[in-house]
Specification:
Layout: H1 9-15, E1 21-27, H2 30-33, H3 39-51, E2 55-62, H4 68-75, E3 89-93, H5 96-106, H6 123-129
Parallel strand pairs: 1-2, 1-3
Helix pairs in contact: 1-3, 4-5
Length: about 150
């Protein structure tokens, strides 16, 4: 399990800036297991966001947000009607891996700028960066290796 820690509600609201339409995406893995994202905490945070004049377009919980295919299939479910596509910002309750995987699944860059606008490496990307193995040299016939 990855360590998760809640940010202060005021910092979350401030990080949303001028964005008006917010979609909330919640991981049911690490944060729930570590009890850092409880239903009460989610309600408190979304109420604070709404009180700041933001519109909550919807909320989805994904069992393991770090699993991109699972995240994308959940977001494409009919009950969500693509509401997340209309959002100015996606508010994610997850560890950093979940944020990067969700951004990759949605085709977006993680924000705020503290993430340097660069998605973190995911296993799919690391495979692309690996060089293919080269053929070993041909052994000299009749030569002894020692």
């Amino acid at each position: 399990m990855i360590r998760t820690e809640n940010k202060p509600v005021e910092q979350i609201v401030e990080s949303l800036g001028n964005s008006q339409n917010i979609y909330v995406l919640v991981c049911g893995g690490c944060p729930e297991g570590a009890e850092t994202t409880t239903p009460e905490m989610l309600d408190k945070t979304t109420e604070a966001v709404a009180a700041a004049g933001k519109k909550i377009l919807g909320r989805a919980t994904v069992d393991f947000l770090c699993h991109k295919a699972l995240t994308l299939s959940r977001l494409q479910a009919p009950e969500f009607n693509g509401a997340w596509r209309k959002a100015d910002r996606i508010l994610v309750f997850s560890c950093g891996i979940g944020v990067a995987a969700a951004a990759a699944a949605m085709g977006a860059l993680p924000r705020p700028d503290s993430l340097e606008n660069k998605p973190r490496l995911t296993p799919d990307w690391m495979v692309l960066l690996m060089m293919a193995p080269t053929k070993p040299p041909v052994a000299a016939v009749g030569e002894k290796a020692w």
